[in-house]
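WARN  no MSA supplied for this record, continuing single-sequence
INFO  ligand: adenosine-5'-diphosphate
INFO  echoing inputs
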Amino acid sequence: MALLLHPIDLVTQHYNEFKQAEASVERIFELMAIAPSMQDKADAVELPTVTGKVEFQQVSFAYADNQPVIQDLCLRTYPGEVVALVGSSGAGKTTLMNLLLRFYQPHDGQILIDGVDIRDVKITSLRHQIGVVPQDTTLFSGTIAQNITYGRPALDPEAIQLAAKIANAHDFISQFSQGYQTWVGERGATLSGGQRQRVAIARAVVFNPRILILDEATSALDSESEALVQEALERAMQNRTVFIIAHRLSTVRRADTILFLEKGRILESGTHPELLEKRGRYASFYTQQFEG
Ligand SMILES: Nc1ncnc2c1ncn2[C@@H]1O[C@H](COP(=O)(O)OP(=O)(O)O)[C@@H](O)[C@H]1O
Ligand SMILES: [Mg+2]
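INFO  complex generated
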């Protein structure tokens, strides 16, 4: 009896664990069974490495059967251009970027990168060439290195370090005793806000994409982390075509082109001084937003 009790006890313990795992496995399989709404065309090709020229040609889009969110919109960037998207909430800035990443498809018009219609290429080959720093970073339970490569095929440690250096993250990562193998909790609980943002920047540049999308964070950091994040962003932006959903005056001012969006249309475009001179919608938005 004495010999039997312990193993029986273990069996019941493991049985509970097994039941819990079974429930999780069911949910994982449910998730994996969902077909992505955006599929590659049968004859989709790999998008060759791009230079970063982006064109929207008369693009229109609506979510489901709702009001049009993007209306007959045209834009064209040259490689290396920094484009700031400005406009009030709901103007369609994020939607425009969702279309470029092909999370949704335009109802009319087309989007070209280096002259190639993005509908004709494999979605993974498109998304690998666009780095994204979202407004809110999601980190996963895993090592810092895994969080930077984001589950994509393993990269050599040097590439990960290079990305972390660009992102001003290498120093704080090196100070952890486990370095890049340091475990971060779910949602990055063990890192500060500024550190999380810098990991997100490293993640966006680790594959050296030619196109970068920044959804500028609005939440304030303390001034020291703020400076580190800004410096990291500036470095990350070099030699890439950048779309910034800009909330900061300093960013807007420095952009090569500002696009002022309203109700899914580009109302005005130009540099900061040009648009101020116009005394149009941007000028009054600017006065309200940044000087008021
Ligand atoms: N997933 C969605 N489903 C339905 N409507 C959406 C969705 N995302 C955004 N919208 C609507 O589209 C419009 C543009 O939103 P968005 O592109 O997020 O604007 P911005 O980023 O400029 O604040 C808004 O009216 C918003 O309510
Ligand atoms: Mg938005």
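The longest strand covers residues 54-62.
INFO  checksum written, moving to next record
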